[in-house]
Amino acid sequence: MRKVPHALERALNARVRLLATTLRPATARQYHYTARHFIAYLRGAFPEVRRPNELRRDPHLLGWIEHLWLRRKRHSDKPLASGTRAADLIRLRKLFDLLADHAFPPRPGLLMSEDLPRLDQHLPRPLSPENDTRLQAELGRSDDLLAAALLLTRLTGMRLGETVDLAPDCLQHAGEDRWLLHVPIGKLHNERWVPVNDEVCALVARLRFLRTLPPAAPTEFLLPRPKGRGVLCRELRALLADAAQRSGMTARVVPHQLRHTYATSMLRAGVSLPGLMKLLGHRTANMTLRYLEITQQDLQREFQLSHTSPRHLLPLPAEVKPDPAVADAATVLDRLSTAIRLLDWFRQRAGNDQRLLLLARRLVRVKSAFQKFAAGVQS
Question: For the chain, how many structural domains are there in total?
Answer without folding.
Answer: 3
